[in-house]
Design brief:
Layout: H1 28-31, H2 34-46, H3 51-61, E1 64-66, E2 69-71, H4 77-85, H5 89-107, E3 110-120, H6 146-159, E4 163-168, H7 177-189, E5 199-203, H8 209-217, E6 223-224, H9 232-238, H10 247-251, H11 253-259, E7 265-268, H12 276-294, E8 300-302, H13 323-336, E9 341-344, H14 350-357, E10 363-365, H15 395-404, E11 408-410, H16 414-417, H17 422-430, H18 434-453, H19 456-470, H20 476-491
Parallel strand pairs: 3-4, 3-10, 3-11, 4-5, 6-7, 7-8, 8-9, 9-10
Antiparallel strand pairs: 1-2
Bound molecules: S-adenosylmethionine.
């Protein structure tokens, strides 16, 4: 990512306010500078019809072949904001084509699969958009016991999941860090039939460096924390009570996570709370900040949109996003941060997911239940769901649909288990070695899924796809080994092959 280097001296046109922007500062209000965001939006608006500039920005972002592999320059928040502001249909089509090309270059046609696991909906915060807020007295509060965690994990393994994102409300009494750590241990310990959870990502409230270190030692994958909104004043209004009210503590959490040794962090905005152009610039400035300070940008970016839930009505919020704007945001993120994975959840419908998969999304959840204990209940529970799930298909249906649309569903968790986190993962991406590493890993883990969990129809489509895709592995040794491993998985209970 090319950094936007102008620091602290930008003068606001039309006002005497000096910008306090400093990408390397550790203070939230300096690396997410309100003045810089407003200047960026103004600059983007002034240039949204500047075709020459826009073409040069697109040109800069294009993948380029070098001696050490294909590289992409990425865009800074100002350049990317110009693309986002552009309303010219032809140029938007060009942007979408470029987003597709970048996704293809660095992530191929693989889509990583995961599921959320809700541990507890006890929460002491007052987030006005979330049904877990403390004032909600009629929602059924629940916290999984270790026996219940086990039952949920077995249900998830029986579907074929290998990668989870654990979720919990913030409540130091009911969900202290010790509880989260115990759950992680339980999850990793369960080996049911050929199943295993091999990567646990964690989405819990902002915490201390010491607690991040404990999470790192527990073997977590990515630490995910959504900023919700980068707009400080709105943030404080939307989080009127509880520890989450503290904007600086929340915004600086990723710096503490990285100080605690966590290499892979996942950013996100809850779209619908504030104006999207503001959020978009803030999100990219956050990514630039992590790269400038820690030498590695975010591992993933999530793009949740506000949804209906228990006592939450999205129509009460003014900034709902139309699908076409949502798609443009996703394409612009893909172009701006080419090496960052992008995640879309079952908050979105099959139709929207189908479109954004073409614009750069690289990870999706499948068959999600957003209630505590939801995977072991017969009926879809609604009493404690965090938000309504739009895409309610089974994992088999999602896998089948992905393959019919030309994607390879991947259950791979190899990178972090092989120590390829942070900048080591990025360099794999940048040198193009993904085709000899992630590609066979995706095909081997998909074989596991098909053999152990898939319906006959999904198996048929999948095995044909795998045979075809194995031929794309360019290194002859890797290709031979991957082919042999696929044969072994089909013929025996040997599992967990990886490069
Ligand atoms: N409690 C943790 C925290 O405060 O960051 C994280 C867990 S929370 C279960 C996960 C995310 O769900 C939140 O960060 C928020 O963005 C999202 N969320 C909350 N209410 C939502 C709603 N009504 N629709 C869509 N997403 C929602």
């Amino acid at each position: 990512m090319k950094l936007f280097q102008t620091v602290a001296i930008l003068k606001n046109k039309g006002s005497s306010k000096m910008s306090n922007y400093n990408v390397k500062s550790l203070k939230a209000e300096e690396f997410i500078s309100d003045t810089e965001i407003l200047e960026t939006i103004k600059y983007a608006e002034e240039n949204k019809n500047n075709i020459e500039l826009i073409n040069s920005i697109l040109e800069k972002a294009r993948p380029r072949k070098t001696e050490s592999g294909t590289v992409c320059a990425g865009l800074n928040h100002r350049e990317a904001s110009v693309l986002l502001a552009c309303e010219n249909k032809e140029i938007i089509e060009k942007m979408y084509a470029l987003a597709r090309e970048i996704k293809q270059t660095f992530y191929g046609n693989r889509i990583v699969m995961f599921a959320p696991l809700y541990l507890s909906n006890y929460c002491v915060n007052g987030c006005v958009y979330c049904p877990y807020h403390m004032q909600n007295k009629h929602i059924a509060r629940k916290k999984l016991t270790q026996e219940e965690v086990k039952a949920e994990v077995i249900a998830l393994q029986d579907m074929g999941h290998k990668r989870l994102a654990i979720e919990a409300g913030e409540d130091p009494k009911n969900n202290p860090i010790e509880y989260i750590l115990e759950c992680i241990d339980t999850i990793y310990s369960i080996k049911h039939k050929n199943g295993a959870i091999r990567r646990v990502n964690v989405n819990i409230a902002a915490t201390t460096v010491e607690n991040y270190r404990k999470l790192k030692d527990a073997g977590i994958g990515t630490y995910i924390l959504f900023q919700e909104t980068y707009h400080k004043e709105s943030y404080e209004e939307l989080h009127p009570t509880g520890p989450k009210h503290n904007y600086a503590y929340h915004t600086e959490a990723m710096d503490r996570a990285m100080e605690g040794g966590i290499d892979d962090v996942g950013l996100g905005v809850l779209f619908g709370l504030e104006k999207y152009k503001y959020e978009f610039a803030g999100l990219l400035m956050h990514a630039e900040h992590l790269e400038a300070v820690h030498g590695v940008g975010p591992h993933t970016i999530s793009v949740p949109r506000l949804k209906r839930a228990d006592d939450i009505d999205p129509d009460q919020f003014d900034n709902g996003l139309a699908d076409d704007i949502f798609e443009k945001i996703i394409a612009c993120i893909r172009i701006a941060v080419p090496y960052t994975g992008m995640i879309i959840s079952t908050r979105e419908s099959q139709e929207v997911r189908e479109r954004v998969l073409e614009l750069g999304v690289s990870q999706i959840s499948g068959a999600s239940r957003t209630s505590v204990g939801g995977y072991t209940e017969e009926e879809r529970p609604h009493d404690s769901e965090q938000f309504d799930v739009s895409d309610q298909r089974t994992l088999d249906e999602v896998v089948n649909w992905l393959m019919k649309n030309g994607h390879i569903p991947s259950f791979c968790t190899a990178c972090y288990r092989e120590g390829r986190t942070g900048d080591r993962f990025m360099s794999l991406c940048k040198t193009g070695q993904i085709i000899n590493c992630c590609h066979p890993n995706a095909l081997m883990t998909l074989t596991e899924y098909l053999v152990d969990y898939a319906s006959e129809e999904t198996k048929k489509i999948g095995f044909e796809l795998i045979d075809k895709e194995l031929e794309k592995v360019s290194n002859p040794k890797a290709k031979e080994l991957a082919k042999q491993n696929v044969v072994d998985i089909k013929a025996s209970n040997r599992r967990d092959f990886r490069f």
